[in-house]
Amino acid sequence: MLAVTGASLTEEMYGPMPELDPDRLFPPDARTREIARELFATIANRPILSPHGHCDPAWFSENAAFSDPAHLFVVPDHYIFRMLVSQGVALADLGVPRADGAPVEQDPRTIWRRFAEHYHLFRGTPTRLWIDHALAEVFGVAAPLGADTADEIYDQVAARLSEPEYRPRALFDRFGIEFLATTDSALDDLSHHDRIREAGLGGRVVPTYRPDAAVDPEHGAFGENVAQLGEITDCDTGSWDGYLEAHRRRRAYFRERGATATDHGHPTARTENLDPDVAERLFRTCLANDASAEEADAFRGQMLTEMARMSVEDGMTMQMHVGSHRNHSDEIRRLHGRDMGFDIPVRTEFVHALRPMLDAVGLEPGLKMIVFTLDETTFSRELAPLAGVYPSLILGPPWWFFDSPEGIMRFRQMTGETAGIYNTAGFNDDTRAFCSIPARHDVSRRVDCAWLASLVADGRIRMDEAYEMAGELTTDLVKKAYGI
Amino acid sequence: MLAVTGASLTEEMYGPMPELDPDRLFPPDARTREIARELFATIANRPILSPHGHCDPAWFSENAAFSDPAHLFVVPDHYIFRMLVSQGVALADLGVPRADGAPVEQDPRTIWRRFAEHYHLFRGTPTRLWIDHALAEVFGVAAPLGADTADEIYDQVAARLSEPEYRPRALFDRFGIEFLATTDSALDDLSHHDRIREAGLGGRVVPTYRPDAAVDPEHGAFGENVAQLGEITDCDTGSWDGYLEAHRRRRAYFRERGATATDHGHPTARTENLDPDVAERLFRTCLANDASAEEADAFRGQMLTEMARMSVEDGMTMQMHVGSHRNHSDEIRRLHGRDMGFDIPVRTEFVHALRPMLDAVGLEPGLKMIVFTLDETTFSRELAPLAGVYPSLILGPPWWFFDSPEGIMRFRQMTGETAGIYNTAGFNDDTRAFCSIPARHDVSRRVDCAWLASLVADGRIRMDEAYEMAGELTTDLVKKAYGI
Amino acid sequence: MLAVTGASLTEEMYGPMPELDPDRLFPPDARTREIARELFATIANRPILSPHGHCDPAWFSENAAFSDPAHLFVVPDHYIFRMLVSQGVALADLGVPRADGAPVEQDPRTIWRRFAEHYHLFRGTPTRLWIDHALAEVFGVAAPLGADTADEIYDQVAARLSEPEYRPRALFDRFGIEFLATTDSALDDLSHHDRIREAGLGGRVVPTYRPDAAVDPEHGAFGENVAQLGEITDCDTGSWDGYLEAHRRRRAYFRERGATATDHGHPTARTENLDPDVAERLFRTCLANDASAEEADAFRGQMLTEMARMSVEDGMTMQMHVGSHRNHSDEIRRLHGRDMGFDIPVRTEFVHALRPMLDAVGLEPGLKMIVFTLDETTFSRELAPLAGVYPSLILGPPWWFFDSPEGIMRFRQMTGETAGIYNTAGFNDDTRAFCSIPARHDVSRRVDCAWLASLVADGRIRMDEAYEMAGELTTDLVKKAYGI
Questions:
Q1: What is the pLDDT of residue B19?
Q2: CATH assignment of B176-482?
Q3: Host H or E run for residue B438
Q4: In the predicted model, is pLDDT for residue C19 greater than 90?
Q5: What are the UniProt keywords, alphabetically (chains A, B, C) (predicted)?
Q6: pLDDT higher than threshold 80 for residue A17
Q7: Which of B265, B391, C157, C258 gives a 20 to 30 Å CA spacing to C302?
Q8: pLDDT tens digits, residue range C62-86?
Q9: Which pLDDT belongs to residue A1?
């Protein structure tokens, strides 16, 4: 395995790399910067643990070459097309497919040029850091991306993509990834994961149990999905008990294929702890497609508690990603479908919302529930105090819009004094942009070191502790939180 | 035009100035400070663009001398009397008029002394920076303001105010103002603006269309105002269509007099997108003074969408200033009327609130809607994600209580990673304190440069980009957002 | 009185102390750090004013030796056992009593070892700073606490506790405490305070009137408490007028024993200003145990306004601590009772909530109401604007989870620009951990100086002002806010 985040990746293959600032994201003060530098040196080259993300398992099972720079970097990345849309570029002109199959821009070079012409928009954003890092460290690109260098960089990246060293499995190794979890529907047969294991990546690329489509009564295909869940688990999912048993069996199926965690994307953090007969009636109402919005919400809340109970039984770590208003623009959803950059965070409440679940299982030994929020105001007010007392609760890293230098620093400053670091879960890259994985871990490691350096510099911790904490934030806490 | 924010204003007239720290508001770290200094040097002397504020157009149409230091600095400035009230000084003792015409302090020197005695209260506030800058740079005052220097400084400022160089138009030129928009009632005949054009300031001092008094059913004179709007536009504002047409015509009237923008001060960000017949019924209910609080709120929300539609038609930039609980103290309102420093920000929600309007027009090419908030928690959670994807949405600068060094820095740190700078609108001084205009732009420019310097110092952007961005934040983005 | 926060406490008794970083919590930049150092030097040794806290008056009336290190540091401190619980340690294993009297760990050395083994959990938290400071400065401990030093440090602290110099009154003197207020039930006979006065500490240790148990209709013993309040004041508390008169008399009883303030711990900031007959009916409903949750909440809100009215009469400062969801875990409450670390902050609203009370008395000359919040989002949005205009309103220092380096800095940065420092109340240690008092004041003074230094460093205030402000933050504003 090559060095990843600290040293250059392609140097031995392609000669000297362009200059990324070796002190990037470190504190400006010289003494504090030196401390950060020393801390970072000890963890920069640690392997990458990616316990939550959205890589496509087909990449690793099929190991096909990525098609071209535009479809690798631009077309699938909502961080990127979102920003271009905000300045008047149409999604179709970036090659984003239409829901009705109407034609969109097909030429990857044209798409890439549009991206490059607008690259200044990303100044000051983490996307800029990720792209620069990926182009420089993964592809050996030496020039800054812009309208004038678009073609040259396109050609350079395209050429590399045709080489065997740029196939997914080769990159996986070069990136130094030790563990990567994908996110998979409960109904997925995990055949890609079977082939990944056959290819010898078993235990390094694993699935995650994400049952939303069979849990959310407002999902368009809820009834069908529940029926299908019954079929593939040989359970009568027409009954509440059978439905729960089906989840149990399906979790076991995932666990046998390496899964260590489940994941739940809900609009709110609401949980319920209903009497079984009440829950059963609610389930039947949902299944009959008769549930009001309130009932659907209650059912999702009940299912979080049920999933937590199953985690007590089977030891899987439970992740909750809550608080996104999905598909804010009706027109975009109609034209291009879901997940088109129009997901907007909303104010989220945890203290009352999590209480039913915490009353049910919050003190269970060994249970691990990781909470992610898009509402930073809850970090110091609600989540750090909750995670700082409930043994089952762990703070997920800053998510989505907050997976950034300022966001990570605010997270540590707002949670560290109440929850410490030992009730947090290290870093998630949470990405579907494969080539940004080293960049994202690099940013996170640097900002964590910058934060630790600030604590050392003003006498809050000793240097020997900071070394330990840097390692724990980078790998140990991840392994503990995800049972790796 | 003299140099404004970087160099001294009165030096050539009055000799050496007192020492304002030339590095004020720059980062403490020496290297980062040097970067900020270099960036600031390139934009310090750019002309001032003031696209939103509350200057009295009569100043420029009549060009009369300002009466005295107290009535220039203290009596009309809610930032100042608010703070003195908080420490037990009565509004009447500061010369603030009573609603019932009862006597209040008339002697400007006495008012000024009261202000000076309490000047320490402003330590650490932006008001302190603005006043110090105005006294030093505009009036050549060399001593710090305080009880012991009150009379001396009063005399010095009073003497200057009698000179022709301190008349409004002369100061306007000395301040280097290239563009200044006032805020004007839809019912205003803009006669001052006509005289301003005759005086040759046309296109440099322009009105803004602010129709709140004829849009808010809870405004005491809503019915009269709607009727008057009908009269002056020759429309039947008793009908919904006529009412909308009256707004269209009145916007055109403003536009002909140089207006490039409208402005809307609402208690919440609520918008509606009602069917025309539902909207019409709601309008009639409001006009009949029969609207419930909920109906009045819905009507205001509908009118935001209507105004956005008209902006699509006529190209005027739309501004929304939402989230102030006005006139919090009943007693103060009874004694002294509105806008007496008792306006308090409230929690504000944008994601659901703006959705009806954004569904209606949010993807319209060319539409520009600038949103201002008094709830900083919405910056990273709601507004930056919204502005970072909707092409029509632009983030207004930090407003009112947040138009300050810490507030501006927080704004950039909380929005810059998601919306970048290109979905923001540069700076507004938003002031009725004329002599503070150079100071406010100076503060904003310095803090923006401090922020950019921090990005350069830790390798997030290159210096050549920072130079570009400094200029864009200072002028280019303002011109683009306001169609100047 | 010995030097307290700046210099070593035990040096003259026990020889050289371990090294706490003399520059701890100062800014990293060398120039700013030097400014902070100079400011701190002028206030480090000022006496301690502790106008709100939870010291047990029995300590000072009885002056018995503290029993052992575990029962001094660990068992009563919810900051400490909360964090250990979050990592799976049971409260019973830390010696925390069971509600049913079931056995818990009794051996102090065992408890201390468990604490020491988990001491790394506190890295980056204020608890770590407080404990380190107390061990080093109060007990002369030279080694870092950890599993390997647990016994040695236990023995050292235990040995000291048996010495007369470590009795409460001796420590009180050594800590340089000039004024300390305890928090006492309205029903308390204050006999400990009588004995404290006899011991010559009168005026230095005083009670605070905390009537919650006789004000909150949802307190289990509300009816009994109201009856008892009637008995001890010789009032008919079965009537509304008699009930209010009983409070008046009881406040006088406290005032005669040195109390300068009242304190009110409510779930929300809700206030009411009801007509007397409506209030009377509400009181009777509550007394009859017939109140709905809404009515109970309204009654608490009405009582805040009544207490404020009494403060206008008798001059006592009123404190409001609002926004904690108490006893979040039912199971912990059942097993161990109240106040077991499971109190979690909730979102809090002040602008509408305080309005009835502010309408009633907010402009009263001389009235002082100090507001504390656990919702940091209200600082810049609601509380600083309110305190920055209402003469009666004062901002309490950062409370509980926010009484920390980052919390204090955020408080100043978020309130200082709108409310200045003169509408704030200096520091509260608010602790029941006696030996942490010097540490907590040390942290607060250092962070305030760090903040002031940042204002000097970037030219926002002059150094002569910063010296003044440092002193005001440390003592003058405390005295003014609490009428000391």
A1: 67
A2: 3.20.20.140
A3: helix B437-457
A4: no
A5: Isomerase
A6: no
A7: C258
A8: 999 999 999 999 999 999 999 999 9
A9: 33
Across the interface, whether the CB atoms of C25 and A455 are under 8 A apart is answered no
User: Pairing state of beta strands B393-395 and B369-373?
Assistant: parallel
Structure-block tokens of residue A126: 């983490």
H or E element at residue C318 = strand C317-322
Phi, psi of A131 (to 5 degrees): -65, -45
* DSSP, residue by residue, A342-372: --EE-----TTTTHHHHHHHTT-TT--EEEE
Q: For residues C29 and C457, what is the distance between their CA atoms, to the nearest angstrom?
A: 10
Q: How far apart are CA C390 and CA C386, in angstroms?
A: 6
Neighbours of chain C (3+ CB pairs under 8 A): A, B
Per CATH, is B65-166 categorized as 3.20.20.140? no
- For residues A381 and C324, give the distance between their C-alpha atoms in angstroms, rounded to a whole number: 10
CATH class entry, domain C69-166:
mainly alpha
* Gap between the Cα atoms of B119 and B103, Å rounded: 25
**End-to-end alpha-carbon separation of chain C, Å?**
20
Q: Which residues of B touch C417 (CB under 8 A)?
A: 124-126, 401, 404-407
Chain C residue numbers touching B407 (CB-CB < 8 A):
380, 417
Nearest-Cα residue of chain B relative to residue A131: B460
Of A32, A393, A417, the CB nearest to C125: A417
pLDDT tens for residues C301-336? 999 999 999 999 999 999 999 999 999 999 999 999
How many Å apart are CA A357 and CA A310, to the nearest integer? 12
Q: Is B2 exposed, middle or buried (0-12, 13-18, 19+ CB in 10 A)?
A: middle
**The two structure tokens encoding residue C335:** 């097993």
Give the ipTM: 0.96
Q: C430, B132 in Cβ contact below 8 A?
A: no
Token pair in block for residue C144: 């870092």
Question: What residues form DSSP beta bridges with B320?
Answer: B264, B371
CA distance linking residue A428 with residue A420, whole number of Å: 18
Distance CA B114, CA C258 (A): 35
Tell me what the pLDDT averaged over chain C comes to. 95
The band of C249, judged by pLDDT with boundaries at 50, 70 and 90, is very high
Instruction: Please name the residue ranges forming H helices in C258-394.
Output: 276-287, 293-314, 330-336, 355-361, 377-378, 384-387
Record: contact A389-C331, CB cut-off 8 A: no
Give A287-295 contacts, CB < 8 A, sequence gap 24+: A287/A222, A287/A223, A287/A226, A287/A238, A289/A217, A289/A222, A289/A223, A291/A217, A293/A218, A295/A217
Residues of chain A with Cβ-Cβ distance to C407 below 8 Å are 380, 417
Tokens 């924010």 found at: B5
Q: How far is A229 from chain C (nearest CA, A)?
A: 35
Residue B417 has a pLDDT of 98
Q: How far is A54 from chain C (nearest CA, A)?
A: 30
- Contact status of A271 with chain C (Cβ, < 8 Å): no
Cβ distance of A123 and B390 shorter than 8 Å = no
Chosen CATH of A68-166 out of 1.10.2020.10, 3.20.10.10, 3.20.20.210, 3.60.15.10: 1.10.2020.10
User: Within 13 A of C351's CA, how many CA atoms are on the CB side?
Assistant: 23
Residue A203: the pLDDT is 85
Query: C126: how many CB neighbours lie within 10 A of its CB?
Result: 24
Radius of gyration of chain A (CA): 23
CATH superfamily of A169-482: Metal-dependent hydrolases (3.20.20.140)
CA distance B452 to C184: 52
Q: Which subunits count as partners of chain A given 3+ CB pairs below 8 Å?
A: B, C
CB C431 within 8 A of CB C80: no
Contacts of A387 in chain C (CB under 8 A): 86
CB contact under 8 A, B458 and A23: yes
